[in-house]
Queue: 4 jobs
Job 1
Amino acid sequence: MTTDTPTYVLTERADLLGYVPYLLGFHPADSVVVLGLADRRIGVAARADLGQPRTETVRRLSRLLTAAGRGRGAVTSVVLIGYGPDASAADVTRDVANGLDARGYHVREVLLHAGDRYRCLQCDDCTPPGGAPFDLSTTASAAIATYEGLVAQPDRSAVERLVRPVGGLAAIAMTQAVDRAELRLAALLADGANDGGGSAGPRPGPGPGDGAGDGDGAGDGDGDGDGDGDGASPGDGMDDDGGGSARTGGGPGDGGTGKPSLAGEPGPGADTADDRLVRAGTAAVEDALRIAEAGGRLDDDEAAWLTVLLLDLRCRDHAWQRTDTEPWQLALWLDLTRRGEPDLLAPVASLLAWSAWRSGNGVLAGAAVRRALLADPAYTLAHLLNEALDQAVAPGSLGPWPAL
């Protein structure tokens, strides 16, 4: 992941090791991690599996280091850390360090972390023969990271659990709510009986099977630091998403906007179905953000209505423009990614990816992109975010959205 966090001085190897899980978002295992330094400042952290071909690992990490230095100070030196008790972990870490050195990077440190000890792989006398003791919980860097609200999940697979869909009664309740939302949308487009300018009515109290809970429990996790970022300049230009839905008739034939076909041409000044759709989408986004900012959670009907409307790119883009780095925004899109119906998921998961990336959480952004592309392999916003993650574009490379 790229790093746009407050500056702290790490003077001890133990503090450096203690900070790595928070940079990645999880505790690495059987991995080699590279920290790219620009003027002694950590600019990028990336990870690769020990089992990958070593030449490919060097090539990929070098590409990420180069990309991370674009538009900022160039990455000129690196720290390598191998993770794993197997003797091959030391060999792979040394080989990757030598490969990066051959590509012109100054290798400052090469360490091996195994269990509760670490040792230097560059010399025999700077750490004890059996390694130096290490306890992450006692490091100043772990305290700093915790204070900053950073979280290190147990392992990489935990990030996938974080974004996995709900099941059981919660999933059934959402399917039923989406059916109701589509009927509501059809009525809106037909005659504007409900223009969507707010909630459909009083929020019902929870009842059996209303999906008030997650059904399978909240997932935990974070993920991998194999680059992070966005590089896409948000704005218009998204009309080739191709991300339609069988539910609303969107698809490649209509540019993936998810907008229903309209029969006949409206007269001048008429309140068209298209106008009502955009107005309803804008109101639904604003309602959702208001509820989330107050610490609330959308009920099933509110969540279903929003996810149906977000298939329209103009509604999606309004939500995109209103989403940045606030934790409650990330929580909103994470919740909807878990609860969303599969054929409505691409916009919501892409918004989660954007929010996670802007917050510096590239590992969660990557997991969200994977969910979006699983739902719709042609969804352009997800592809843009995925490409930017691969290129290690820093979240700070894009300024905040202009005030609306």
Job 2
Amino acid sequence: MIVIKPETFKSIRSKLLYPFLIMIVILALVSFFSYYNEQLLLHRINGLLDNNIELMNFSADIDKAVSYLEKYLVSRNFLMLREYYYYTDAIDSEYPKLEVVDATPDNSLMLENVRNMTRAFLNQAEAAEKAKRARDSAGYLHAFNEAVRYNTNIKWAVDWLITRQLEENSRQYLLISKRLSDIQRFGLMIIIGTLLFSIIVTIWISFQFTKPLNKLMDAAKAISKGNFSIAPLKVVTHDEVGVVTRAFNEMVSSISRLITEIKHKSDLEIRLQDQELQNLSMKNVLREAELHALQSQINPHFLFNMLNAGVQLAIIENADKTAEFVDKVSSLLRYNLRTLDTPVTIQEEINHLKTYFFILETRYGSERFHFLIQIDSDDPGIFNYQIPLLTLQPIAENALIHGIEEKESGGKIEVRVFKDLEFVVVQVSDNGLGMDSQTLTCIQQGNQISGHTTGLGLHNVRERLRLFYGQEDLFSIQSIPNQGTTIQIKLPLNQNF
């Protein structure tokens, strides 16, 4: 641990902090004063504009009240009367709140006149409306003319107030602008002085502190290249650079010791990794043994013998359809219990799929679901093309379970096999519920949706195709909600297993 005596340590920060603090305080004061005056001017202008807008809106409301009152008096339209009430209510609530920004005696007196004329205007407008209801033509005409006269006087008074306030605000704006110009000139002088001071301090620092730092940098480059045999650096200053130099010398010594220890630990880790690999291998062997033990609990031959006995019993009882159904189930079970890593031909997969479709038609009835297998190729060699075991049944089962199983009738699954350039293409389509974009994205990202019979999902089929052919993008899905789903697999013709 490095310890520096307080009487010998001279901090670089203490040498530079005070001048920079003074400079920052001066700049902050200038900036604050300039900002304060700008905000003062802006606040006054905004207040004047808001006040003028309020006065103009008030004058506009009186104009609208006069207009709707006139329309009501002429046409006796109650829609116009409702609009007239709306604006007179607004005027009645607004005029007591009217204010002026520059409250000189003349402005205050004029504002009080506006309020008095507004009360008179409302009284005359109300009198005109009541006279109209009483069918007093002369009365409402006189009251309406008086209301128009008050409206004209109010508009003139509002315009006079706005003009006087703008004139006073212009005078204030010129005074504050002159003050801001003086502050900006003073601030510019401060900035120039600060810039000169910064240049001088920077040059001084570059000469005082870069020399020991350059030596430290050269030593660090040598360390980065693996040279830990360099001599300790001499400490020539009593500031932070000296502290860093001492720490650097101790770091080099510590790194040399740590490298020796790391090499020793690395040898130990290598031996531990070898031991862990052996343990993992042993765990895999144990897991396979457990799987074989579980599989051995069910004797497939016993199941097949029982199913064959059921077939013979159905034949003896002249139940031909039952015999055929049990025979198909036996074939399906025998096929599903084959080893998954064994390749089969397309012909075997198609025959297995036909067996699966026969069982489904027997279960659901041919009127509810229709299954179609179509081979669009004149090349008989396509039937001998090898693919992974149980590739098509999980796809067809997915179409049944998640596509057409909820249909009461008209459900259809169609399987097409055809050649396309350098691929054998297999398409499994259904006219079922389809999938929304969220479910489709979930499946395309590899999330598992398992089948009921095989326990194999679309993700399993996709991964086995990728491993079997060593290629990506062999599996694709297209789906439209409430119209159906099409799953396509593209199998390369040039099989090199």
Job 3
Amino acid sequence: MGDTVRTSPTRRGGPDLLMVVAVLILALGGCAISASARAFSETMIWWLPKGIVQGLAFSLVGILIMAGLMLIDYRTLTRPGFLWAQFLGICTLLLVVLSLPEVANTSRFIAIGGMSLQPSEFAKPVLVLVLAVTLAKAGDEIRTWQGLSRPLFFAATISGLILAGKDLGGPTLLFAVTLALAVAAGARWMHVGILLGVSGLTFGIAARMQPYRWERLENFVHAWGFDASNFYDISYQLRQSLMAVGSGGIGGKGFGLSTQKAHFLPAGKNDFVFGIFAEELGLIGGIFLIGVFLFVAWRGHCIAERAADAQGRLIALGATWLVVGQALVHIAIVVGLLPTKGLPLPFVSTGGSAILAFSILMGLVLNVSMGRRSYGG
């Protein structure tokens, strides 16, 4: 990844407190909702449900990771040697996953004892760091194909390895953020438009190659035409999800009182957890949660604008867009605005790898917030 990018003089301060509060709300509130969503499928550890114990443990570790990242200047994480180690390490893990038995028709997990590691989640912060460095180093050359080639190579390598594991949604989100960061770095819209066309064609081919993906797209198109007379013709998962969201009404049934989580809504504790959230806390709760994520987006952009250098700006933007973008996509899927796809809701869905990966991303944003441009002599 070349020489270290030159940076402007900076001074270190405290983290963005508003962002800290928002992330803590997501982490601790998400832990509670996650525990509620899997209440019907958990064993007990001591006197507490396993979900609560695991959720608290991962949330605590995630908070510690965020605090730890704030102690390390992000420029240390983007030094060439360390950056190459991260990139090669995550690619190795993604290759290892491909050699293991499939789980739920995909190759995503590495079993470690009684737990599982999902490398594709940890690929997100690695890609953000790699893109920030390569895009910042490109400078004005980012307006040429040559300047775009290096960041595109790293993004395509990671996305391609994840796609090889039969995960289409993850690479789509990663490549969308890659193109957005390229625009933020100064790439020409014509180049981005061509890349959008190529990625759209790739998406269509990948979807057509797997019958279940194509069926999801057909179900999505069919669902847009449903009414009360043919409601039960749409896919079971989307139907149960809409029933969960709709039955929550304005104020919800109350925390812990969801009925869809009793094995009616598939993947209700992870890929469709917003359905359980909306059923228990209603439209008001749903709007509040979306508001928190939009607040995170706003603070992330404020932090990016105050960043000490181009690297910091792109790290803050990339990490923020990945977290908020995945949250909005998850919610859109749950309410039927996008085709069904397994994407966890950041900090709310179960899954230790996702919680830790999103904690790393927000830790990077908070790290950038501690750097300021140094003005004067």
Job 4
Amino acid sequence: MTDKKAKKIKKIKRIRSGFFGRGVSLSKMALGSGARLAGHKLRHAFSDETARDQEFEKLLAMQAERIVSELGHLKGTLMKVGQLIAVLGENQLPPRVVDAFKSLQADSSSLPWKQVRKILNRRMGVDWPDKLIVEEEAFAAASIGQVHRATIKETGEQICLKIQYPGVEKAISSDIKALRSILKMFKFVGSDESRLDEILREVQLMMRREMDYLQEAATTQRFYDFLQNDQAFKVPRVYHEFCSKKILATQYLSGVSFQHETVQELSLDRRNAMAENLLRITWAEIFELNDLQTDTHFGNYLVQIDPDGEQDRIILLDFGAMRKFSKDFRKATAMMINACLDWNETSLEQGLRWHRVILPGDSEEIIKAYLESVWICMEMVRAPEDTEADNWEGDIYVFEKSTLLERNHRANIEIIKMTNFRGAPGEYIFLGRKLAGLYGIICNLKPRINLRKLIEVHQQNIT
């Protein structure tokens, strides 16, 4: 959906969606991993601790790259899970391991046209060529489907057809079981596995939502209606007559990525406006619509740059990975935001206890570590005198100067050591996933904004 010519997408002959085919692949992966880990322990049984750690990191990186290669062919839940590991492991795994799993975000393998045509015949009827001209080359491919540009013959309108891969929905349950093994292999599981089970239930529910394209069509329509008169945003129109549970038809919109040089070269005022609008729609998703888009990365946004410089527009794409929250969850989140605005440690701790991040019996040391992590993450809404001075120019937060990620990384490492990586509750993880992705995109814009003032303007919607 950009003005630039789409990059060449590599082809895969087929997706192993059957239980046996996926099971064999996963078994080979697990056996190979087990053998290598066992060999590592034998070879380095008498090595010093530093040497063992260094070699183990190399081995984990090699295993991650091997697993990523296999997940790219399996597609579906497991590939999506690989992407999730990159998010969950950002502060816990060696950089090379995280980079390997991050590469799944940009996976570009797709099914060949011969197979796609058969899928369209089954799902749209053999007469679909009477209505649509579909480009044979996919211009985007992801974990559960690929996208082809098409033209409606009757009107000449250009649309995007998102076509779900066959069989991926049937594999969800078995894939989730395999995911548990992968997470355990990479030591994502502490002594208490009940929280892991909670997270996996969340992942399974999210995957089922993402695979229901009729639900995604309805959500896209909801955002289209909500933002129809908002000149800062654009949402693709839905063509319901071509939609089904496994095919989504939306308007083709052209634009450029936030990472494109033309965006980077815009004036500070225009980049500030984009950053503020991204924050504004996020508050609306949580506190007005109660429909949070949790898959926040550069591929799910485009920018239409106004040649006159009056109003650049952000195109919102992909409304599959949505998450609703209970009223109490949103109330606790609002409590934490207000606590950060007011520097109220008691309210912040209450919010973290409601979210089940802080648990009964946690030591003062653990509680203090969690509070410190949140203070770091929310420093841009606090008073400048209470935070790192180098990040500020007066009451303006300078994202380009921020060392937030490095400091939060160190804080999280300490929490992991103290809690034996018990993880956070499922709801909290998806909220964190959204905010972490949002922070990355906003940092890319290098804005300088008074975020505290922005939140105070919308505070009536978060109380």
